[in-house]
Amino acid sequence: MAKLKLKKTKKAVQQPTANTTKDENMVVLPPVRMSDDPLPKQVKWINRQRVLVFAARGINHRHRHLMEDIKRLMPHHKTESKMERSKNLYVVNEISEMKNCNKCLLFEGRKMRDLYLWMSNVPNGPSAKFLIENIYTMGELKMTGNCLKGSRPLLSFDPQFTKDPHYSLLKELLIQTFGVPRYHPKSQPFFDHVYTFMILDNRIWFRNYQILSEDGALAEIGPRFVLNPVKIFSGSFGGTTLWENPKYVSPAKLRQAMSKKAGNKYERRIEKKAMHEATKPETGYPDIEGPDFFKGDPMEQAQDVVVKEEVNNDDDDASDEEVGIASDEAEGDTSVDEIPDTKNNPNFSMKINKTKPEKTIRRKQLKAKSKAISDQIKKRKNKQFKKKSVKK
Question: Could you please report the per-residue DSSP string of 133-191?
């Protein structure tokens, strides 16, 4: 009897499972999952974008920290050891294919100062070369924002990306590189931060913000950097040049111009001194006779000065009239009645030009002296430059 009862219970358990398997789309989950059981794999990962992020030898510590920050922001990245600088950049295509990556970010340093970024679509292209400026890593900024590691970002672009063709191409390249694919095994299935790409001063400014609430409140996380585009190539790490930045100036040339400007500082200082000596007046206050001018009420002193000037002008006008009358009488052409009114018509007033020949001669002498000093400085510099070239 016991055996018969067991068989009946088995049939009763099997009947509802047969009813549930009618729909093919329905998946029956176990009521309890053990902790030792493996997690079910996500099969819906269709956009299989993998980005290879590594650097060439010659970057400093700040550039390395920036590369590590970018790796933390991209859960779909893969790493590789440093590449030798002597190798050709076409080798990067082979390295990315070995790592099964279809995007690549290569950081290249120059003179332990400048950092260049290669962003490429492997293996067919296009690729772009950027100069990274204004670098601020997460460790330096210490921002209040925070996000979950591996979460997917929202990408926000400036409207200017759609106006120019080279910016639209860069936009598509940035979307495919920085956008985390959906259902990636190492990513989280929600959005909690935003990447913003803004165009200002012919450069692309990158910022990373945390989404605090649904109304649009943001808090910056970091890092910060600016991408100055240099060239866009048709192939991956090479090919024909599709676009070249006409306003790009290499940082080495900028430093060279700054050093030249600083080298001429001594010459400019000597020339300024000579010009100051040449143009310096003999007396500081030619209209003031002594220090008594600054004593007493300033308003009364100013009124006295104005009265004296008016008196002097009247004396000058009277002397000019006398000179004109004397000349007319000597010639005999005009009478006293025909003398023009100099007070009402100031154009007829005759003023004697007071020239100072000693002052002009002194100015010329000082200008010649300053020119001689500058010539001596240039000769010394040329001699020093020749000595250095001979030693080398």
Answer: EEEE-HHHH--S----TTEEEEEEE-GGGGTSHHHHHHHHHHHHHHSPPTT-TTSEEEE
Q: Beta-carbon neighbour count of residue 138 at 10 Å?
A: 18
SS3 319: helix
Domains and CATH numbers, the chain: 51-248 (3.40.50.10480), 253-278+374-384 (no CATH)
Residue-wise over 192-227: b if at least 16 C-beta within 10 A, else e? Answer: bbbbbbebeeebbbbbbbbbeeeeeebebbbbbbbb
| pLDDT tens profile 301-329 | 777 777 777 777 766 666 666 655 555 55
What are the pLDDT digits (tens) for 224-282?
A: 999 999 999 999 999 999 999 999 999 999 999 988 888 788 888 888 888 888 888 77
pLDDT of residue 64: 96
In the block, residue with structure tokens 């989404």 = 211
In eight-state DSSP terms, residue 83 is B
Torsion of CA 129, 133, 139, 143, to 10 degrees: -110
Phi-psi region of 332 (alpha: psi -120 to 50; beta: other; left: phi over 0): left
As a whole-number percent, the residues of the chain with pLDDT over 90 amount to: 47
Contact 245, 201 (CB under 8 A): no
Which value, to the nearest 10 degrees, does the dihedral of the CA atoms of residues 82, 129, 110, 179 take? -50
Q: Which residues, in sequence order, are CB contacts of 84 under 8 Å at separation 6+?
A: 56, 57
Cα separation, 236 vs 369, in Å, equals: 62
DSSP annotation of 221 reads -
Structure pTM?
0.61
- Crossing angle of helices 265-279 and 251-263, in 10° steps, is 40
With H, G, I as helix, E, B as strand and everything else as coil, classify residue 374.
Answer: helix
Q: Return the number of other C-beta atoms located less than 10 Å from residue 9's C-beta.
A: 9
Cis peptide before 291 (omega within 30 of 0): no
pLDDT tens figures, 143-193: 999 999 999 999 999 999 999 999 999 999 999 999 999 889 899 888 999
Asked whether the beta carbons of 236 and 121 are under 8 A apart, the reply is: yes
The whole-number average pLDDT for the span 71-87 is 92
